[in-house]
Fold this sequence. Notes:
Blueprint: H1 9-26, E1 36-41, E2 44-47, E3 50-54, H2 67-80, H3 88-92, H4 95-107, E4 112-116, H5 119-130, E5 136-140, H6 145-154, E6 157-161, H7 166-175, E7 182-187, H8 199-208, E8 212-216, H9 231-235, E9 243-247, E10 257-261, H10 263-272, H11 274-277, H12 284-299, H13 302-321, E11 332-338, H14 340-352, E12 355-356, E13 359-360, E14 370-375, H15 382-398
Parallel strand pairs: 3-12, 5-6, 5-7, 7-8, 8-9
Antiparallel strand pairs: 1-2, 2-3, 4-10, 9-10, 11-14, 13-14
Helix pairs in contact: 2-12, 4-12, 5-6, 13-15
Amino acid sequence: MDLHNTDDAVTRRIKALTDRVSMLKEHDLYFYNQPVEELLDDSKVRVRGRVMGMYASYGYLGLLNHPRINAAAKAAIDKFGTGTNGVRSLAGTLTIHTELEETIANFKHAEAAITYSSGYATNLSVISTLMGRGDYVFSDKLNHASIVDGCLMSGTEFRRFRHNDMEHLEGLLKNAPSDVAKLVIADSVFSMDGDIIDLPKTVELCKTYNAWLMIDEAHSLGVLGEKGTGIEEHFNLYGGIDIKMGTLSKTIPSVGGYVAANKDIITYLRHASRAYIFSAALPPAQAAAANEAFKVILDEPERIVKLNLNTKQFIGGLKSMGFDTMLTETAIVPVLCGDDMTAFAITREAQLNDVFVLPVVSPAVPEGLARLRATVTAAHDPSEIERAMDVIGEAGKKLGIIK
Length: 403
């Protein structure tokens, strides 16, 4: 029985969204939450009984089902079981958790690290724990939702600077009171556009205006730098980032998030951040899988070489067809479609031809900038990428996106 049948704001919001979902389903244009029936290898999946090339995965180095990582996860289950039945501060910390955090700290050239149950929880908790009322946070306009939510939750003076616009950031820093705590925060690789933050200039501004710097490396770990260690290696600029955040669920085929920083920051977060204190510990298998994955990245640098070649092929091929891929330099390749319905339609064409891509539409991106947010990985063969581009190209012509 529906107890809430009044026409209030909550009811209207629910109805607006459910009506949109129903309309899309009626026209065979709804592609979210599709259960993947089988992961055939790192580049192919079975969905609705069809084998499709996967171009929507964040597994940039193709580490899913890596034998070493799987073996580490299985060994952890044999040793520790499937859960911890506790929070980290009390009975939930296992030796595999401390080993993972040491591995992350070494990988990220930091003194220490802390892990959380998800990347979203990491940003939400870390920002709101470090910053508070009267402090100032400066956030790139295209930062991930978890960063925005963390800033709002902190109660700080929240200032957003135009995307990658260092002049605008400097103006905001200059206008902030000199005697308050300041934090600049940005994605390293932007999750919808695929471009890279201007780290050298950001570091310079933070030093000039005495601001802390936090960088979210969700999409740069395993992607940037010859060894795949991230944005500091990419720019050969170590020591400028105070708080190095990342996820364990994209290039790293596990779940969770982390922060690497100096020992004092990590000790503070371990005793003050609510998502650490009040969330159950990472399951042993997931902690072990993540721990091994960092080691595999360093042991198999050829994966980064392959990813870079595949990225150039994918971006270059789509551009040569006439698609607008914006300013991407990485494995996240936006294929601009314009309006939302066109993005849904090109997705339908691609999936009917066994290329698994997904649309990103408003409000996740501004109206008129709907897109396929296609991704390429080290696991793709060049011939597979060629076929995927042919399919996307044919669909683009059919829908009038390209000529």
